[in-house]
């Protein structure tokens, strides 16, 4: 076995160990005060066979219909609506619930906001999360859920450290596979959607060196951008009779 392959395997094992350690530290230290089970069951794994990307998403409801909220960058740049995608609910009781071919379809995408919406064309009896009404403030705690690497339903804790145009800067750890996952407040309401990750440390890896400590930051789409995105979806539903309901 080559040295490069051994190094790659060691990196993957170390990453999984660190992610699991962060998750259980959050649980054991009573950091998580929200409905964890509901959060986990509303979390969805997205498999895009066309682009080769896997990521996370969240079950939401619009007019009592089930949709999956996720990131735009998980889909092909050209003809994204033709991507072959599958939605997986990480449900141990049902031995993971897969959608069949054409049961999940990308119906709306906004590249600028890095948001996308998937319509589920089957009965989806899983908990869903509501979108928060109030914009979070700097310093407020948030929880990030997703499916990093080969793991499922991993929750990390952090705080909103800064606000930029259309995004929040978080100190919560995110990893490859978290893209599209929900960022929620104390009530378990969605306040943001996780953006791209790079090398498992955070979007664009903006490291800040403070004395001898290196802190990694991550970013998510802001609540205002999310609300604007959903508003466009509702408007499109009214204007276009062919738009999937």
Question: How would you concisely characterize the structure shown here?
Answer:
This protein is an alpha+beta fold. It is 20% helix and 33% strand.
Q: What's the level 1 CATH class of the largest domain?
A: Mainly Beta
Q: Quote the average pLDDT.
A: 78
- How many angstroms does the end-to-end distance come to? 53 Å
Give me the CATH fold name of the largest domain: Thrombin, subunit H
The tally of strands reads 15
What is the H/E order? HHEEEEEEEEEEEEEEEH
Helical region count?
3
Alpha-beta content class: alpha+beta
Strand content: 25-35%
Biggest β-sheet: count, sense, barrel? 7 strands, antiparallel
Counting structural domains, the number is 2
Provide an overview of this structure.
The protein has 245 residues and is of the alpha+beta class. The protein folds into 2 domains: 128 residues, Trypsin-like serine proteases (Thrombin, subunit H, Beta Barrel); 93 residues, Trypsin-like serine proteases (Thrombin, subunit H). The chain contains 3 helices and 15 strands. Strand 13 and strand 14 form a beta hairpin. It starts with a helix and ends in a 6-residue tail after the last helix. About 9% of the residues have low confidence.
Task: Set down the secondary structure blueprint.
Elements: H1 3-28, H2 36-42, E1 43-48, E2 54-62, E3 65-70, E4 85-89, E5 97-98, E6 104-110, E7 115-120, E8 141-146, E9 154-164, E10 167-170, E11 182-184, E12 190-194, E13 208-210, E14 213-215, E15 218-221, H3 223-239
Antiparallel strand pairs: 1-2, 1-4, 2-3, 3-7, 4-5, 6-7, 8-9, 8-11, 9-10, 10-15, 11-12, 12-15, 13-14
């Amino acid at each position: 076995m080559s040295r490069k392959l051994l190094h790659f395997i060691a990196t993957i094992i170390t990453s999984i160990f660190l992610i699991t350690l962060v998750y259980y530290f959050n649980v054991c230290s009573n950091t998580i005060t929200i409905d964890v089970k509901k959060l986990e069951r509303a979390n969805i794994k997205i498999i895009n066979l066309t682009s080769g990307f896997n990521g996370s998403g969240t079950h939401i409801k619009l007019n009592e219909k089930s949709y999956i909220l996720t990131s735009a960058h998980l889909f092909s740049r050209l003809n994204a609506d033709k991507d072959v995608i599958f939605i997986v609910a990480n449900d141990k009781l049902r031995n993971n619930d897969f959608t069949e071919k054409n049961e999940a379809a990308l119906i709306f995408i906004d590249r600028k906001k890095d948001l996308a919406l998937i319509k589920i064309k089957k009965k989806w009896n899983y908990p869903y999360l509501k979108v928060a009404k109030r914009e979070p403030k700097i310093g407020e705690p948030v929880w990030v859920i997703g499916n990093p690497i080969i793991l499922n339903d991993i929750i990390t804790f952090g705080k909103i450290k800064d606000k930029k145009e259309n995004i929040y800067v978080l100190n919560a750890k995110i990893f490859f596979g978290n893209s599209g996952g929900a960022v929620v407040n104390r009530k378990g309401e969605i306040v943001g959607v996780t953006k791209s990750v790079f090398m498992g440390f955070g979007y664009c890896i903006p490291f800040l060196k403070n004395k001898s400590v290196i802190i990694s930051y991550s970013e998510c789409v802001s609540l205002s951008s999310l609300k604007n995105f959903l508003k466009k979806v509702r408007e499109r539903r009214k204007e276009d009779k062919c738009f999937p309901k």
